[in-house]
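Could you please consider the sequence and fold appended to this message?
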Amino acid sequence: MNTIAQSTINMKKTVLSLMAILLIAAIAALSFGSVGWAADNSGNQAINQPAYLTAPNSESEIAIYQQPGTRQPQSGSGTSGDRITILDQVSSNQGKVWNRIRLEKSPQDEGWVQEDFVSLPETPNQAPVKKQSRSQNAPYSGQ
């Protein structure tokens, strides 16, 4: 076999290998890139809505996570009645809504809490209305 034919075969093998790698990467991105969450939230607008943390038991700590999801590392906690600012919001494929918040008492602390633990005031200076129920797998500790 001459060298031109051998070069052509080697080039075809290389192209096929690169195409296979790209296909695998594309499948992986589609499979894992949006598991549970909206893959692109670039259209979200800043909310900057004042609110309060709320829980069924006023002494319970409310978990604040580094990312949306109860399996994410916890970045801190708050208690019912803590003033917060809602910065952003995302929805999961499981119908859960998560709010990215900033605690008023420590503005450097930001994180994610489930919507079940957020209460909007009727007026800016009014205390939040306590919710009577919470979802079964809602994250909070100190029961």
Remarks:
- The beta strands are 49-53, 61-65, 74-79, 83-91, 97-103, 110-114, 118-119.
